[in-house]
Design brief:
Layout lengths: L4 E7 L6 H13 L5 E5 L2 H17 L11 E9 L2 E10 L15 H9 L5 E7 H9 L9 E2 L2 E2 H17 L6 E7 L2 H7 L3 H10 L14 E6 L1 E3 L16 E4 L3 H40 L4 H40 L6 E4 L2 E4 L6
Parallel strand pairs: 1-4, 1-5, 5-8, 8-9
Antiparallel strand pairs: 2-3, 3-4, 6-7, 9-12, 10-11, 12-13
C-alpha cells in the first residue's frame, strides 16, 4: 500500500515568522517526539534545514525569509521505522496572497493560487504582536487588523478559496490551523497575562475569521514561539541565543495529520459498511441456493457464492485491521495538541487527548 501524501500551505504576511516556524518544527520532530519522526526524503535538503537551525542556536542568525522562488520540501512522517504519511510543504514568501495575478505579476503568485485549492491543510499565520494589540483595543468587531500587510478580507478569502477549490475537485474541506506566531509578544502588546490574552483571542476570533466558523470546517488555534525575545525587531540581525525557547512547534502538524487520519477513517468506515452489505447479501444468496433442488447445478453456484463470500470476508478483516490501526494513530496524535482550542462546524471545543 502506497504511503498517503498530503499538501500543507501557509498563508501569511511579511515578517510573520512562517519560515522560522517551519525550521523550528522540523528541528523538533526530526529529533523524534516519542515514537514519531519527521525527516526530509532529500538528505541534502535535510542537512541544509538542520544547518540553518544550528546557525540560529550557535550564532543567533534567524533563517532567511523566502524569496520569489518558493521552496518545496517533501517530508516523511513516520512512527519509528513505519512510514505513515508524506507531506509536501511549500514555503511561499510572505505576502504571496496579497498581490494580484496581472501580466507582470511574479510567477509565485500564480503558483500560490494554483497550490491553495489542492491543499489538505492550510495554515493562517497571524502575528502574535498584532493580535495582542487587537486584544488591548478591546477586540473590536470592525478591526483594522493587519498582520504583515495581510488584512482580514485576505484571510477570509484564503479560507473561502481553499474550501471552494477543494469542493470543485470533489474533495472535502481542508483542515486549518490558526498559527499565532511570536507568542512571546502576545502578553507584551496586550499588557496582560498570556493566558488571559489567548482566552480573549479564541473567544473573539469569529470577529476576525468569520469564514472559519462554517459547517464542515475544522481548525486548530495554536500559539507558537521560537524564543522569549519580547520584540518584533529580530529579523535581519542576530538574536540573543539564551532567549531561544521553542514552544508548541510540533503541535500544528500533528493536528494536520490527525485530521487527515480522521477523514481517512470516515472513508474506510463507509467502505466497511459496503463490504458488510455484500456479505449479508451473499449469506442470503447461499441460503437460497441451498434450499433449491437440482443438486449438480446448485453445487457449482454454491461454490461460486462461497468463493465470493471468502473474498469479501478477507477484505473485511483487512479493512477492520486498517481502521483499528488508524484509530490508534489518530488517538496518539491527538494527545499532542491536548487542551488547545479546536473550531468545528462553527463551535469552539477544547481537545482532551490526555497528553503532555
Amino acid at each position: 500500500m502506497a504511503t498517503p501524501r498530503i499538501t500543507v500551505t501557509l498563508a501569511g504576511g511579511n515578517n510573520t515568522g512562517k519560515t522560522v516556524f517551519m525550521h523550528g518544527m522540523y528541528h523538533r520532530l526530526s529529533a523524534g517526539l516519542r515514537d514519531y519522526f519527521l525527516y526530509s526524503v532529500d538528505r541534502d535538503e535535510e542537512i541544509r534545514l538542520l544547518r540553518t537551525w544550528k546557525m540560529l542556536q550557535d550564532k543567533g542568525e534567524m533563517p532567511r525569509a523566502t524569496g520569489t522562488e518558493p521552496q518545496t520540501y517533501t517530508f516523511q512522517f513516520a512512527k519509528n521505522f513505519t512510514p505513515l504519511l508524506q507531506m509536501v510543504w511549500t514555503d511561499f514568501r510572505g505576502g504571496a496572497a496579497l498581490e494580484d495575478s496581472g501580466p507582470n505579476a511574479p510567477k509565485d503568485i500564480l503558483q500560490w493560487r494554483e497550490h491553495l485549492p489542492r491543499s489538505d491543510s492550510v495554515y493562517l499565520v497571524m502575528d502574535g504582536g498584532e493580535l495582542g494589540k487587537w486584544v488591548k483595543e478591546g477586540t473590536p468587531e470592525s478591526a483594522n487588523f493587519d498582520s504583515g500587510g495581510m488584512d482580514l478580507a485576505t484571510y477570509n478569502w484564503v479560507i473561502r478559496e481553499a474550501v471552494d477549490g477543494r469542493r470543485r475537485l470533489g474533495d472535502p474541506p481542508p483542515s486549518f490551523v490558526v498559527l499565532i506566531t511570536k507568542m512571546d509578544l502576545l502578553a507584551v502588546t496586550a499588557d496582560r497575562p498570556i493566558d488571559q490574552v489567548l482566552t480573549s483571542v479564541v473567544a473573539n476570533l469569529k470577529k476576525l475569521l468569520r469564514q472559519l466558523f462554517q459547517n464542515g470546517v475544522t481548525a486548530l488555534v495554536c500559539p507558537v514561539q521560537i524564543g522569549d525575545f519580547k520584540t518584533d525587531d529580530m529579523f535581519g540581525r542576530p538574536v540573543d541565543r539564551s532567549l531561544i525557547r521553542p514552544q508548541n512547534l510540533h503541535r500544528p502538524i500533528c493536528f494536520s495529520l490527525w485530521h487527515y487520519l480522521t477523514e481517512t477513517l470516515t472513508a474506510r468506515q463507509a467502505q466497511l459498511a459496503e463490504i458488510e452489505k455484500k456479505i449479508t447479501e451473499g449469506d442470503a444468496e447461499l441460503s437460497e441456493l441451498r434450499a433449491k433442488s437440482f443438486q449438480s447445478i446448485r453445487r457449482k453456484k454454491i461454490a461460486a457464492a462461497r468463493s465470493a463470500q471468502w473474498g469479501w470476508e478477507t477484505e473485511r478483516t483487512g479493512m477492520e485491521a486498517e481502521i483499528t490501526a488508524t484509530e490508534s494513530q489518530a488517538e496518539l496524535l491527538m494527545r499532542e495538541f491536548d487542551r488547545l482550542p479546536i473550531i468545528k462546524d462553527g463551535d469552539i471545543h477544547i481537545s482532551s487527548g490526555g497528553s503532555s
